[in-house]
């Protein structure tokens, strides 16, 4: 008899239909994405290589740097200061010969993107 009374009293606490956490609806999480290059193009215009890039995401103002390579040989560097109002950058490099060109973009010491233009076999 005691066991039956005990089971009846504990039944509501042991039922499977109850919430397991509080609050019932968790708060919405807003992710903070790091700086990233969303658009980058490397094209040739006559004897000049042109690189266009756009940085999106949340970032502190700083320099977007580019390191130019022909194959594995470094051929130049450049940088542009970016902030919340100026998120686009344009770079150019004189390169009269066809080659296997790469441009490595970095922001704050972190490499963000590499763009390539292969006019010959690398």
Structure notes:
With 122 residues, the protein is mainly beta. The chain has a domain of 83 residues: Sandwich (Immunoglobulin-like). The protein has one helix and seven strands; from the N terminus they run H-E-E-E-E-E-E-E. The strands form two sheets. It has a four-stranded antiparallel sheet with strand order 4-3-6-7, with no helix packed on it. A hairpin with a 2-residue loop joins strand 6 and strand 7. The protein is rod-shaped, with a radius of gyration of 29 Å. The mean pLDDT is 87. It comes from Deinococcus multiflagellatus. This is Ig-like domain-containing protein. Keywords: Signal.
Explain briefly what this protein structure is:
This protein is mainly beta. It is about 10% helix and about 50% strand. The protein has one helix spanning about 1-15; strands at about 35-45, 50-55, 60-70, 75-80, 90-95, 100-105, 110-120.
Task: Please tag this protein with its features.
122 residues; mainly beta; Immunoglobulin-like; four-stranded antiparallel sheet; 51% strand
């Amino acid at each position: 008899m005691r066991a039956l009374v005990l089971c009846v009293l504990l039944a509501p606490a042991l039922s499977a239909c109850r919430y397991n956490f509080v609050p019932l609806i968790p708060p919405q999480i807003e992710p903070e994405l790091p700086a990233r290059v969303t658009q980058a193009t490397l094209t040739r215009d006559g004897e000049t290589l042109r690189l266009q890039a756009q940085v999106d995401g949340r970032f502190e103002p700083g320099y977007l740097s580019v390191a130019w390579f022909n194959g594995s040989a470094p051929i130049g560097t450049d940088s542009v200061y970016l902030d919340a109002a100026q998120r686009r950058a344009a770079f150019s490099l004189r390169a009269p010969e066809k080659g296997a060109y790469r441009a490595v973009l970095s922001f704050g010491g972190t490499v963000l993107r590499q763009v390539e233009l292969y006019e010959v076999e690398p």
